[in-house]
Amino acid sequence: MADTSNAPVLNISGLRYERNDRKILKGVDWRVGAGEHWVILGPNGCGKTSLINCLTGYEMSTAGDITVDGSEFGRTDWREVRKRVGLVTSTLTSYLEPGEPVLDAVASGREAMLNLVGEVSAEVRTEARALLERIGCGYLADSFWGVLSQGERQKILICRALMSKYHVLILDEPCAGLDPVAREHFLGWLQQLATAPGAPSMVLVTHHVEEILPCFTHVLVLKQGAVLASGTKQEVLTSECLSEAYGAPLSLEAGGDRYRLTLLNP
Ligand SMILES: Nc1ncnc2c1ncn2[C@@H]1O[C@H](COP(=O)(O)OP(=O)(O)OP(=O)(O)O)[C@@H](O)[C@H]1O
Fold it and tell me: Who is most buried in 148, 205, 208, 210, counting CB within 10 A?
């Protein structure tokens, strides 16, 4: 049997994404190996969400190759691939109907559907309710998506991602809108999830270095739609690299097992 232990979970080569005459991604190469957990950093508008949207088939790339969990974009039904990718992104917020019941929004994550069409089994509903309870949102099960606060929406999207039988979990600014306590609880849970046996590979898009938990092994830094740096946390996460990425003098400090970034001479 072929040895697939070193097969990448995500593999992107020469990815270009252009819209309305804008070159948003300009030839991105990126490989996520099994067991690696990545953070994506980069200034506003550098293309982080566009990269995630191309990876998950929510946006069509202009050129390049994308392989997710062994399936190549264009050769596989992307709806099937999505079932193996847990995704938490505010992009989904605009796709979900305001009248979608929260329990359905979570349950539909099993089939990676947006807005529940048809029936889901009682078993899946029970699982969705249990997940909502686990994340402290059981009280929202019978509410509608449209009335939730921003923080509640993030938590529901996290529950939804957990419903999929994912091999990779992509989190695009998952802490946006979470209060400080909810954020620390969420990060603690993420660290546990990443270090559990058989954990999925994780990709975290963030602006905040303090969210880079010890479980993260690699960092991708984007700047103006291109890869500025890509490699292990030790190689990439430096004051020099982040200063270049954000175009300002920054000092990165590691305190305990978390990081802190300070703008020098603000
Ligand atoms: N359909 C489009 N037409 C023109 N420009 C677009 C389109 N979609 C995205 N962009 C531009 O592409 C750039 C990258 O956007 P993207 O959302 O990927 O950035 P980001 O790195 O996730 O930013 P942020 O950190 O602010 O969330 C932005 O400048 C955005 O305005």
Answer: 205
| Nearest Cα residue to atom 10 of ligand 1 | 24
Residue nearest to atom 13 of ligand 1 (CA): 45
Residue with tokens 């690696």: 36
The CATH homologous superfamily for domain 1-84+166-236 is: P-loop containing nucleotide triphosphate hydrolases (3.40.50.300)
The residue among 55, 15, 43 whose CA lies nearest residue 170 is 55
Could you give the CA distance from residue 36 to residue 73 in angstroms, rounded to a whole number?
A: 21
Average pLDDT value for residue range 81-89: 78
Domain boundaries, the chain: 1-84+166-236, 97-163
**Residue 199 alpha carbon to ligand 1 centre in Å:** 31
Tell me the CA–centroid distance for residue 209 and ligand 1, in Å.
21
What tens digit of pLDDT does each residue of 30-79 get?
Answer: 999 988 999 999 999 999 999 998 988 888 899 999 998 888 877 777 77
Q: For residue 3, is pLDDT > 50? A: no
Ligand 1 site residues (CB inside 6 A) read 19-20, 22, 24, 42, 44-50
pTM: 0.86
Of ligand 1's atoms, which has the minimum distance to the CA of residue 47? 18
Ligand 1 atom nearest residue 207's Cα? 25
Interval 32-41: pLDDT, tens: 998 899 999 9
The predicted pLDDT at position 37 comes to 95
Detail the DSSP E strand segments found in the chain: 8-19, 22-33, 37-41, 63-68, 71-72, 85-88, 168-172, 201-205, 218-223, 226-232, 250-255, 258-263
